[in-house]
Amino acid sequence: MIVPAWLWIPLTIFAAAAQTVRNTAQRRLTDDLGTLGATLVRFLYGMPLLALWLALLLSLPGFSAPTFTWPFVGWVLIAAASQMAATACLLRAMTARSFAIGLVYSKSEVIQVALFSVVFLGERLSLVTGIAIVVATLGVVLLSPRGKEAPRNWLDPAALFGFAAGTGFAISVVGYRGANLALGTEAFLAAAETLFWSQLLQTLLLGAWLLWRTPSVVLGALRQWRLSMFAGGAGATASLANVTALALEPASHVRTLILIEVVFTYIVSMRVFREAISRRELAGIALVVLGVGAIVATSG
Q1: The pLDDT of residue 191 is above 90
Q2: In angstroms, rounded to a whole number, what is the distance separating the alpha carbons of residues 165 and 159?
Q3: Which of 21, 121, 145, 154 is spaced 20 to 30 Å from 248 by Cα?
Q4: So what's the pLDDT on residue 288?
């Protein structure tokens, strides 16, 4: 199957939009289910869609189940564990401050992704890519809070959980990219296999933990099935688009472009949660857009 070289761009933009929808739904669920309960919803209710997509691909001519290797298993374990921890930290950061502020802190992942990709995957960064990452990150810095929303110090819960989420997501991105490469098959199938097994592991581990410690949370997730299905479906489609893009393009490019999610999140922040936006934040959004635009313009 011949895949256009530019396909990673619309896939990443779609993933950013779907992630915004998922985060919005998860934040609403956090009030009733808590952080871990809202995290479980993302994985549990996304599994049927992932299973259906994988089964559909395997039924098509030219697609056959790949042979798993130990490097693939290792990368999947890393991706699954780090993403699970990062999601929980992101939700804690969002509830500690505002919806947009929590996401902004987590976007410290971009520079970390670039560094981890060079160290662990041997990917090379061009000068333009490096500049684009710096510009976009400066935009994120401008989006950091001031006034009553600002943390008093680096030990503030929003800052700690936000940066922890950024590190976790950076590790998971490298894990997903590494798993895709280790599988050595067509991009769509590699992404579907990688995501199915990682999310199945996440569902089993977190589900078992909650059933053991707080079964009422699992029952609550089942009772709130309508919003949970919405959050899980949005999360699954976002992850499919994101992991497929990672099978097509270096992780540093994908994760810089997905910063466009910050723009989507501020729109939600203003429209849905009625949170104000300043000129400084508008300048930050402009830098983010400039940085991701440079990535798109120079990508192969």
Answers
A1: yes
A2: 10
A3: 21
A4: 83
